[in-house]
Design brief:
There is one protein chain. The protein has about 450 residues and is mostly helical. It has one domain. About 80% of the residues lie in helices and about 0% in strands. The protein is built from 18 helices and no strands. Helix 1 packs across helix 2 and helix 11 packs across helix 15. It is globular, with a radius of gyration of 22 Å. The chain starts with 16 loop residues before the first helix and ends in a 14-residue tail after the last helix.
Length: about 450
């Protein structure tokens, strides 16, 4: 089979950009909104067990985030590399990328199986919380890690669909997984019908079942609908070259999310010096902000293959226009989120059975942190532009500076005032710094790469 097969032009090469971006992003945004709704409802159910249970699940976020970072980061590398090969019309290379990506998903699961068996108890022991919170956390997080194969295969097979522009099917997979979670949560947490009352173990079990179901649907849609990628693992041998290329794009994305885990862990350590309620507020904020950020991430997921494809096809105008339109949409979404957080903070907190004390801490927290939304949209979309062009290291550097070198030190210094409300201001401080650094990197990458797209008849080698 020739590596340069004759196939009709993919829609990413000719459809009007605004229509193309919306057609690819809206299904992803819808499915991620459903996912965000699940995250919120999941915590609402857990909060009905006790505030300790809610705090325990909130403290699980850093390790869960690292697991998601590995799954999504690897998938981002697969997506960008595969899309670029499709833009170059090199379908054989695209198939090899997909096969090696599936292999990496399996290896990643084995790593977190070990983490779930050996590392969860020590992780909670370092948090400085009560024994009750530790037990809730170990029960929850062990299940999430040990039965995590669903999330790795879901992320991989969904990115194969996204890379070929078939994002409507990822809406089905993510939506189905989230809906299954929503149905199973109250059933397994509270023991409805013939099911036993499992508490936080029920929340974790519902999560992994939803992930497994989503993975099954994603595999099915790839098999039946994604004919541009032909997967055959019968004679498969891992390719060090392809794996290195996947991780050259994916590792910076992993590091970015892993840095977020370190930030949350450090921030929780700062907040626990005030009270466990402050930690619970921070956990609630992360659940709520996902309802704002998830649509932007869905927009990114639609944007990345478009830019990668047209970069491979050497079409500078479509690369630039895709980025500009995506920035406008992202900033608009973030402005709406800012307004909601500032107008209805108490109502949002009451969704989580919040006590008066929690509301007194949470209202100013939501209003202060949400000011960072106003500049975050631009930085998020531009960071995904870097990834699509194979320069994800810029996003990684930006994330390190924003979360580790600015946000955490600022939070610590502001905590010395003794006023927890001052700590929240570290978020807008860090986001403004990210805005500046992102712009510097964008100017640099335009001079080095974007301005030179189309100057050669052949795309740059991957």
């Amino acid at each position: 089979m020739s590596s340069q097969q004759t196939m009709p032009e993919n829609k990413m090469g000719y459809m009007p950009i605004n229509k193309l971006l919306l057609s690819m992003s809206l299904p992803m945004m819808a499915s991620m909104l459903v996912q965000a709704l699940y995250n919120i409802v999941d915590s609402i159910f857990v909060a009905q067990i006790s505030e300790d249970a809610l705090t325990a699940v909130s403290l699980a976020f850093p390790l869960q985030s690292i697991m998601i970072a590995v799954a999504i980061g690897t998938a981002v590398g697969i997506n960008a590399l595969l899309s670029r090969h499709l833009g170059e019309r090199d379908f054989a290379a695209a198939n090899l990328v997909a096969e090696n990506g599936i292999f990496l998903a399996f290896v990643s699961y084995l790593v977190f199986l070990v983490v779930g068996l050996l590392a969860v108890k020590p992780f909670y022991a370092t948090q400085g919380v009560s024994r009750a919170i530790q037990q809730y956390g170990v029960d929850y997080l062990t299940i999430c890690c040990v039965v995590s194969f669903g999330i790795f295969f879901q992320a991989t097979f969904e990115r194969l669909l996204q890379a070929t522009g078939k994002t409507i099917y990822t809406m089905y997979t993510q939506g189905a997984g989230a809906i299954i979670n929503l149905i199973l949560d109250p059933v397994l947490i509270f023991g409805i019908g013939p099911f036993p009352e499992m508490g936080v173990k029920g929340a974790a079990t519902a999560t992994v079942i939803g992930q497994i179901c989503a993975a099954v649907f994603a595999i099915y849609f790839n098999r039946m609908k994604n004919h541009e990628v032909q997967i055959s693992l019968r004679h498969f041998k891992p390719s060090g070259h392809i794996i290195a290329n996947i991780y050259s794009i994916g590792v910076p994305s992993m590091v970015i999310q892993a840095i977020g885990s370190v930030m949350v862990y450090g921030f929780n350590k700062i907040l626990i010096t005030f009270s466990s309620t402050a930690v619970a507020v921070f956990g609630i904020y992360f659940k709520l902000q996902s309802f704002v950020f998830m649509p932007v991430f869905g927009l990114n997921n639609g944007m990345v293959p478009i830019i990668a494809y047209n970069y491979g096809a050497q079409n500078k105008e479509r690369v630039i226009r895709t980025h500009k339109i995506a920035v406008v949409y992202a900033v608009s979404i973030m402005v709406v989120g800012f307004l909601i957080f500032n107008i209805f903070p108490a109502q949002l907190l009451k969704l989580f059975s919040a006590s008066d004390h929690l509301i007194s801490i949470g209202v100013p927290a939501l209003r202060i942190i949400s000011t960072s939304f106003l500049v975050a949209g631009y930085a998020i979309v531009t960071g995904s532009l870097f990834q699509a062009l194979g320069d994800a290291v810029y996003s990684m550097i930006n994330s390190i500076c924003r979360q580790l070198l600015i946000l955490l030190p600022a939070a610590y210094l502001l905590s010395l005032t003794g006023d927890v409300n001052m700590v929240w201001w570290s978020f807008p401080i860090a986001e403004v710094s990210s805005l500046i650094l992102t712009t510097v990197f964008l100017i640099r990458i335009r001079k080095q790469k974007i301005d030179h797209i189309g100057e050669h008849t052949e795309a740059e080698p991957v």
